[in-house]
Design brief:
Length: about 40
């Protein structure tokens, strides 16, 4: 069963606080999903 996200709060350092329909809250780290560019 998948729960719907009802709220998102940015925390810094590429993390998000997600609030689900059952009022559970989880921190989600977005950094692994971002493409980063090093010096050119």
């Amino acid at each position: 069963m998948y729960l719907s996200v009802i709220g998102v709060t940015p925390l810094g350092d590429y993390t998000l606080m997600l609030e689900f329909e059952n009022r559970e809250q989880r921190v989600f780290d977005m950094l692994p999903y971002l493409d980063t560019v090093t010096s050119m």
